[in-house]
Amino acid sequence: MNLLSKRNKRGAFLLEFGLVTGFVLVPLLLGVSSAGMTMVRTTHVYQLNRDMAHMFANGVDFTVAQNQALAVQAASGLDITVSGGNGVIILSQIECTGAGQAVCIRRQTIGNTALRSSSFANPTQIDSDGNVSYTTDPNATANSFLNVMNMSVGQIAYVSEMYYSSSDYNITGFLTGNGTYTYAVF
Amino acid sequence: MLTVKGNNRRGSALLIVGLSMIVIVPAVGLAIDGADVYLVRVRLSQAVDAAALAGGRALVIGANDSAQTANAKTTATEYFNANFPAGFLGTTNVTVSPSVIENNTSHYRSVVVTGSATAPVYFMGILKVTAPVIQISATATRRDVNCMLVLDRSYSMVMANAIPDLQNAAALFVNNYFAPGRDNVGLLTFGGATYLAYPMSTNFLTGSPNVPGLIGQLVGGGGTNTSQALSIAYQQLQALNKPGALNVIVLFTDGRPTAFTADFQSLLTKNTGCDKTTSKLGFLTVYFNTVTWVPVSSNGIFQAYDSSITDASDTTIAPHSTGCAYYNNSADVSQDVSAMPTQDYYGNSTNDGYESVDLTQIGTPTQVQAASVNAADSAGNRIRSDTTLYPVIMAIGLGGTDVYPPDPAFMQRLANTPTSTSFNSTQPAGYYVWAADKSQLVQAFQQVGAQILRLSR
After folding, report:
1. Do A20 and B13 touch (CB under 8 A)?
2. What is the extent of the structural domain holding A109?
3. Sheet strands (E) in chain A
4. C-alpha to C-alpha distance for B282 and B289, rounded to whole angstroms
5. Which residues in chain B touch residue A35, judged by CB atoms under 8 angstroms apart?
6. Residues 42-101, chain B: which have Cβ within 8 Å of A?
7. In whole angstroms, how far apart are CA B397 and each of B76, B193, B384, B404, B444?
8. Nearest to A12 among B10, B28, B42 (CB)
């Protein structure tokens, strides 16, 4: 009788502990881990995007293979290659050509372009140096950028957009996110 | 000994976990809030960095120093706000404070941007932890620019109807990339002869005439005396003498050098009636068949300087030449002059450089061309060797107009680009951009302008 009672009490403790662990501690641990990884990744994406924008504004040409390799190296830790991987970096030189009119005059991309397109312009007539035929390409229009920043005629902005997919965080099937997107205007 | 008896054992796990939450929850909150603060810091850093750089670029906008300063501050604020909108990441009290510092001794201006924001504390606020204020500064420095614009107006430009495109691109370049009242810009045009259209001045936009206006009057014609053009441009930089500023020569050309200037007096060894007691300063050039573009003769000695921006004939015989064979027929210059000199009028070597040459073959046009290339090469080397002004040469080559377009290897060598096989790391690295046809000229000048802005920071 006493032996059975002790077993019942031990079982109750284990059951309580199991329930608390399963419904409180494990979700808390997963949540904190997920939030932490997201924070780290977001910070990484922000910093990389800022560096890319800085270099682009300073005249670094990312159509040159050596500079592309430099960008991929800067993205080490993230799965980004010159033309593939888990993220994409979209570099645009946007010029205001008239009141309320902005066009993308240069476009260079690194990474997996299938993941996301630019939020501002998606020109199709681009030469091997990244120069956009903006006078003939209707897709070079970047007027939506004017919602981000007012521009005066002739003003140029160097914009870097970066998207990094979070599909690799899909550990259990329900942690999938939409990824991290950010932009920098230099 | 602490024991749990009877029914007290029930709920003990909950009790233990509940008590541990007093530690776990603040720890988790600290981690999340700390990461968030770091994220705010990263983004704020991006915003002030972008603002400072954009402010530095905007220092060229405005008719005078105070207008440029105001523009720089306005632009810096706009770029800051674009990168860090109000309320971004839950921040409050976001401020940006741009300022411009001038150094008129060392010829530079700095845009200093300080941004601050109060980061949110979602968890630590419960524990009455004060929200941290993050403040970050960034500085962008722009050196004043002294730019001599050297434009090739040779006959091939006329034949290809490329002069209007050049005028448009060059005028946009002058209008967009230099700070009136602060930067010095000059204009020099050249064919076989050279015309200093606008000595370097800070009034390049406000003067009458101004540089864009003069560019609009440019008339084409003549050969390609690159060495003289570079040498006179360098003289302008030397006369201005502003060490510390960015001293740059922007050379536009659509062909290979075909002429050089020298005083041929000491080489008048033939008895043709040429007065040997007076200077024979002028340029020697190559004439081409304008249908086949085959070099046909060496011609000279022509007057080395044009009289106006619209003077481009290049056919005026040099002074004091009456009695010389070339006075009546410029192709007979070899009847008067025995050889080409080892140095041109400006001290540039004609026989030690990019191409092998036989200076005694003055009547052979290809040899005159080789000497002309060498003189230009030597001029570039001499300019880049100046360890006081550290002049930078930026070159634009245009294709599609001349049968003998600029030699890319030579142009890279002239500009001393890091990609050149003869790159000299002890001299300032320049920049060379190739415009495949005249429609790409605006873009080519833009690229050079971007490089100048980059170097001037």
Report:
1. yes
2. 48-185
3. 87-98, 101-111, 156-164, 180-185
4. 22
5. 32, 35
6. 42-43, 45-46, 49-50, 53-54, 57, 75, 78-79, 81-83
7. 35, 20, 19, 11, 9
8. B10
Q: What is the pLDDT of residues A88-106, one digit of tens each?
A: 999 999 999 887 899 999 9
- Its CATH class, for the domain covering B145-258+336-455, is alpha beta
Q: Judge: A43–B42 Cβ closer than 8 Å, yes or no.
A: yes
- Return all residues near B69 (Cβ < 8 A) that are at least 6 apart: B59, B62, B100
Global confidence as pTM: 0.73
Instruction: Tell me the per-residue pLDDT of B348-393, one tens digit each, with 9 for 90 and over.
Output: 999 988 999 999 999 999 999 999 999 999 999 999 999 999 999 9
Residue A111 maps to a domain: yes
Q: Which helix (H) or strand (E) holds B366?
A: helix B365-384
Q: List CB contacts (< 8 A) between B42 and chain A.
A: 43, 46-47, 50
Contacts B32 to A, Cβ<8 Å: 32, 35, 39
What are the boundaries of each domain within chain B? 17-142, 145-258+336-455
How many Å lie between the alpha carbon of B13 and the closest alpha carbon of chain A? 5
Helix (H, G, I), strand (E, B) or coil at B188: strand
Confirm or reject contact between A39 and chain B (CB < 8 A). Answer: yes
What length is written for chain B?
A: 457
Beta bridge partners, B286, equal: B298
Tokens of B422: 């003869």
